UniProtKB/TrEMBL annotation:
This is Phototropic-responsive NPH3 family protein. Residues 494-505 have a biased composition (Polar residues). It comes from the Eukaryota. The lineage of its organism: Eukaryota, Viridiplantae, Streptophyta, Embryophyta, Tracheophyta. Residues 29-96 form the BTB domain. Keywords: Ubl conjugation pathway. It comes from Salix dunnii. Pfam families: BTB, NPH3. Residues 210-484 form the NPH3 domain. The keyword Transport does not apply. Residues 494-556, 574-612 are annotated as: Disordered. Residues 511-520 have a biased composition (Basic and acidic residues). InterPro entries: BTB/POZ_dom, NPH3/RPT2-like, NPH3_dom, SKP1/BTB/POZ_sf. Belongs to the NPH3 family.
Amino acid sequence: MKFMKLGSKPDAFQADGKSVRYVASELSADVTINVGEVKFKLHKFPLLSKSNRLQKLVSKAGENSDEIDMVGFPGGPKAFEICAKFCYGMTVTLNAYNVVAARCAAEYLEMTEDVDRGNLIFKIEVFLNSSIFRSWKDSIIVLQTTKSLLPWSEDLKIVGRCIDSIASKTSVDPASITWSYTYNRKLSVPDKIVEEGINFREKIESVPKDWWVEDICELDIDLYKRVMITVKSKGRMDGKVIGEALKTYAIRWLPDSFDDSVSDAHTCKYKYLVETLVCLLPPDKGVGCSCSFLLKLLKFAVLVGVNDSPREDLIKRISLKLHEASVKDLLVPARPPQNTLYDVELIQCIVNRYLMHEKYNQDEKNKVNGDFILGHEHVTLMNLGKLIDGYLAEIAHDTNLTIASFINLSRSIPDSARPIQDGLYKAIDIYLKEHLSLTKAEKKKICGLMDVKKLTMDASMHAAQNERLPLRVVVQVLFFEQVRATSGVQALNSNARDTSNSTTNTDEEWEKTAADDNKSLKKQMSRMKMKDEDFRKNGKLLKKNSKSTKSGVQLLPSRSRRIFDRLWVVGRGHVENRSSETSGSSQSPTSVAPGDTKSFGSSSRQRRHSIS
């Protein structure tokens, strides 16, 4: 910290209690100056030789009065004592914490060059310009002290000069920074490992672009706003660094949680803080701030009731990068008159805007690239699908969540965003578990959201045993699992036939690809055999109603077991029929056993009846 010493005489100020200050001297005091609650018993000559205002006040008071009141003195008794010591020539030390108060007090006392050469105002200005404003941390400290000295500090342009000094330093090339700064969020550069046999070299850490954001977090929100506006106006700061600065400030001043017990004063404070941070967001809505940070601001915006304009701005920004969010980020608490735990309508609005934006971008790209979905867009849609399915699973626990809200949010996601629907199935299962009063029609409606063909094996096995699902859905799950198994066997036969008939490759090509083809074929055969064996074992176990767990197969409920038995018979007959038609043998399709054909037909009729 920079400092400046003025005067050379020893400090002779003494106290008489808490409210009286005097100078130890052989001469008795001839003037009493009241500053706040403190009385200063001093001598006229040294004071009048430096202060034009004291000359006027003493002259006005006349010889009959030796007491002067300093009304509205900036900086209070401490600032006046600094000025008085300077007048006496006593040693006084100025630093970043008291220089603004001393400057304002000197201005009040009119300690200018017209009164005496080298007066206090001149010396303080030299100190400010040559030391304080050239120091990063001193400039911030001085700026903090200006708030208690308004409007004097503003009229003397100390606030503006501090802000310009701080903003200018933030724009300096990080490689040129030599002053100290605070950076506790992460290490700039990981420690380098020194190889064996090489001498240790001096460790040089690079300065990050956002080196300045933590130090200015100590500023009051009004001063912080002015600093950030000046930083942005210079046009040299990257939007991501601006976003990081705002995020760091929000972490510093916004609480981790918020409830209705917070006082109105704190609520107004947080409201103003959030509105200010929103207005400081980078102009480019697509970059700068993470979606998680924007959603945190939106949560507080909802809780403290910010105005519509900043709230709408946040929604627009979030809708551009919703796929980057997490489920926890989306859990925005609902406010009255809503009776749900979370604001589902708000998330529905954001999802709709996101999809509209994505559709517009895709249409624009299609004009150039043709009518197909690029890889990046497909990935973002899949991320959105996983995000919303996770959000549905979270809000499904809310007993006040209506089935209409659940269905509308689920249907807003396009099918291409859900190549696998295990997440949606989990959400539906939770909703059915928490809402036991649903009618059969409502259960059928909500289960109609998922496509059982897009469930994985694990999810299908769980669904087949799920007593909460309607019978129609269980039948569909079992049927499509059987279809998946039979199609796998057919694919295996087809691959084997193609391999045996392929004779067009040259010897050289065969040598290059034989190993890979053989490995691939073995893997496919292994998977198909395992799947076929599992279904055979399941069928036998179900028919015998075995309780043995040696095979590691989980038994199905009785309702699903009967359906699975029928479907297994159907699948076996279907596979054998297809094998006869496609094999190279002379056996004709009519050679299929009549009993098998009848079983397929009767089973099919029974299956159709059970679904309807």
